[in-house]
Amino acid sequence: xxxxxxxxxxxxxxxxxxxxxxxxxxxxxxxxxxxxxxxxxxxxxxxxxxxxxxxxxxxxxxxxxxxxxxxxxxxxxxxxxxxxxxxxxxxxxxxxxxxxxxxxxxxxxxxxxxxxxxxxxxxxxxxxxxxxxxxxxxxxxxxxxxxxxxxxxxxxxxxxxxxxxxxxxxxxxxxxxxxxxxxxxxxxxxxxxxxxxxxxxxxx
Length: 204
What we know:
By secondary structure, the protein is an all-alpha fold.
């Protein structure tokens, strides 16, 4: 693989391992481990935007890159939701919803890809303006990413060992709950147009 021509794709792959590093640290119940996990989580999600920027800036946009970007999103997102449930911070329904959504949308998008369509960009599989806005627009993608990273970072913050006073703050707990629910609701909402507009992919 030519590294120079695949910088954006490399960033997409590296951020998965950074996220895994953060997740592993959450099982080391010390303040320094959670602090580092928090910082690595911020970096992992910042790299989610960086790979797209580099792809456009370096003219490295491709269908493979689009697939790799979505793949990285799914791995990171499902991993965090699952670990948070295992740690008892959220209900198990959250990762189950996320996993069901991932299999459904990505299964449909794999069919779309075989017919020359992508999830985002000029060749998006979405046909309606509303579908394009909800699933493919930069605004909604950024909005969803912000909701996720806010939810994940706040869940880590309110569970930092040795600072239990934070978890006892009603306002902080309320904000955390708000972003957790916002993230999972957006996760479902952004899947609806993918399913609703998938019929034409199977008309053969």
